[in-house]
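Listing S7. Sequence submitted for prediction.
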Amino acid sequence: MNFIFDTPEARALAISKAEFFTKEILSGNEILADEALEAANLLLSYSTEESEINAALAVICHVAEKSSLNELEVTLLHDCIDASRNFLYLDMLGRRSAEWKQSLSYFAEFRRAVYTTEYGTTLTRQQKQIIDKFREVRRLVVSAPTSFGKTMAIQEIILQMHYRSVAIIMPTIALMAETVAKFKSNLNFSRFEVINNTSGSSDNPNKIYVLTPEKLDLLLEEDAELKFDFFAMDEIYKIQDDLDRRAVFSSVLYSLVSSGADFYLIGPYFKRFSERFLDKTKSAFLRYSTEIVQKEVHDLSGIPVGEKVRFGNKYFNKAATDETNIKRIAGALEEQKIFYYKDTRGVETIAKKLSEYSALDCSSRVAELVDYISESISDKWSLIGYLKKGVAFHHGAMPRHIQGEIVEFFNAEKINSLVCTTTLTEGVNTTAKNVIILSNKKGTENLTGFDYKNIKGRAGRFLHHFTGRVVNLVDVPEDEKDEVLFHYFDSDELATDEVLRIRDGDLTEEHRKTKELITHELNVSKIPLSLVKGNKYIPIEKQMALIAVLRANYALVDDIYFSGSYPEKKVLDTILQLCHMYLFSQKEHSDKSFNIFELSRLVKYHVYHHPSIKQMISAQSGKSEDTRIRNAFKLIARYFEFSLPKYLVCFASLYNFVAREMGKKEISLSWVITLLQYGFESPQAIALKDSGVPSDIVAKLEEGLSDCTSIEEIRVRIRLRPKILEKLSSFERKILEKHI
């Protein structure tokens, strides 16, 4: 233990006092703030134990939440913040009262200057440690709580290390857009071109690509010469936990690491990172458990019905039913609230109930968003009515741009309550003070301690709150993930296509044998290695099975052949059936929402009729408008934009290989694939969609932007001919501006 207290007794007393006063504050009891702050100051001045520093920060945050402090308490709080070296707390207090800034001592100002970079950023003590460590090792993995400031360090690393070619991988479109906005608004990055699409860039040598793993994967495939000096990847645990996207996360990470680039990988609440990864990449690992924003946890699951519950100055008695408790919690908590529930339909049901409880009339606040949803999606969507009552829901089966707008309206306090699945709690930043946990499930699986901590971490946002409030209506586990593994290096069971992508030096002996067997089988079957290797994320055995079927059926190959851009409907039907039989994943086979016959019907409708979003919603099965909307956007996000293009690219490459063997002509599915991925065929529309612009806005702009082939050309065209935007409402123009 690295303490320099005068005596062990003094140290023990300081720890016990800090912990005692924190518990008293959480219990709603009055405390002597000066005594609590004195104990916290001792810990911050003489301790290096993170748990004890965290106890001191808890005192700072909870005392800072008090509405009024006397002169002694103000002085002691200043001293504690100074000792913590988290000077941004003072900025937060300064927004409350100018007196806080005026009372800073000379020495506190001097010490703050040590933590302020040449680019004007004031770092926390922990952020400075991260950046100092990065300067030393250049390859760093960091585990730290939500609201710790991990992503803010990315900007400082880029500036201090003078990187020129940078990739930042964000897990969601919302985080991608938020990150792009931060770079564009920071004058320190004016020399950089900030890119959020794959459709080309200027000759500027200073580039920052901010992309999802899928977009970066596509970019790396298209431009084998593209290299980066540095890359950062957020929510790094997804290389292990996100079963739907793990393959692409891992492939992108492996490609970038193998290129020799420096890197900074970040995520919350894991104790260790793959030792093999750290060893092979010569990287370092830092773990923090310090909560910069402290949490006030109320566990209602363990108290009896009828017992009094207190939130600040508000009281209510615990009810026998969740519905009544939700109503009482919503009434007692005035600040922004996020309600977590396990699944999509439940989220919408709870949002309906909250809107019925709400006495708010937010119609004028959300008018722009309501009008936009009514015009572009449906005026019958129940979300519209909820928004007018200050309530919204957020889940994966809704348009990504609407998800983003809802979060913006919530952060602007135009919406008071959000009901969500893990789509919002995993990688979207909000200013919610309160998080209410209504389920200990995640879909049909049990919520893990890691899941709970990640959701809990969304309560309170640094620079907005000193503390966040968490209310548990269910019993939840709470433990960190033991270790994040990188299955390329750590797993004994790699998919066959993954074995081929990994360099021999990184394969285990067992995997080298697997690779030899694959190569042998391909040689015996007279199938080029490059052919199957090119179809990423599709197991080799599936590809070989489809080749065998095509080789054995000359008539089938003839029946599939078509010339031109579009196959006949019957031919496209056959292609989709073969993809379903031989290439689809097990999860897609078991998807009851879209069997192959329904999927084929909707694909043909999309390809041959070019429907609008509203028309695609009308074409869905489902009794209610809400169900049809959910199905339409699930279809677009999961199948049209992701799975089907991958399978159709694979099918075309395998079919054409067999056709060449037979001396027959090849086919092209490129237009079908483009239509599925983007919904449009023109280069200007594709460039806009690639940058995240919603389809309804693209449709209004497509004609006026003819002959433009890149976002840069589109920007210039709009500057030269601003009348192009006359078709857009002011709200639509704001959306467009965010993306281009």
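Caption to Listing S7: primary sequence and predicted structure tokens for the chain studied. The mean pLDDT is 90. The longest helix spans residues 625-661.
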